[in-house]
Structure formats: C-alpha cells, structure tokens
Design goal:
With about 80 residues, the chain is mainly α. It has two helices and no strands. It has a domain of about 55 residues. The protein is about 55% helix and about 0% strand. The chain is elongated, with a radius of gyration of 18 Å.
Length: about 80
C-alpha cells in the first residue's frame, strides 16, 4: 500500500477562501445573501478573514486528529 501524505495546516487558507467564495455564489441564489457587489469592502474583508481563520482552524484540527495514522493500515492483519 502507498503512504498517505499528511495534510498541512496552511491548506486551510485556500479551503477557507473557497468556502467564502462559494458562499457568495450559492447563498444569493438561495435568497440568504445579497450579491457580492452589494457589500462594502470592509464587510467583505471581515467575512473573508473569518473564513480564513475557520479554514486554518479546521485544517489544524484535522491535522491533530490524524496524527499517528500513517503506518496504521497494516496493523491487526496478522
């Protein structure tokens, strides 16, 4: 079996940015948000910053939860 690479915490930054951008695509279609161009830059900056923190925290939590999993695939099969 091949080895899995451990995710990096910095992967949370593009994850958070993607969730932020996706929200401004999907949520206006659902009537929950206004279109992105109706928000001022300060609001968008705060919202993006919050999503970057969310993404980084999610990646850090995932990193902590998956520590030590590398090499466990073969255990218990003997």
């Amino acid at each position: 079996m091949g080895s899995r690479r451990r995710p990096k915490v910095w992967y949370g930054l593009p994850f958070g940015a993607a969730v932020w951008a996706g929200g401004y695509v999907v949520l206006p279609q659902l009537g929950v948000y206004k279109p992105i161009w109706e928000y001022d830059l300060g609001t968008l900056r705060k919202d993006l910053t919050a999503h970057l923190v969310f993404g980084t925290a999610t990646a850090a939590a995932f990193d902590l939860l998956t520590r030590g999993e590398t090499g466990r695939e073969g255990r218990g099969n003997s």
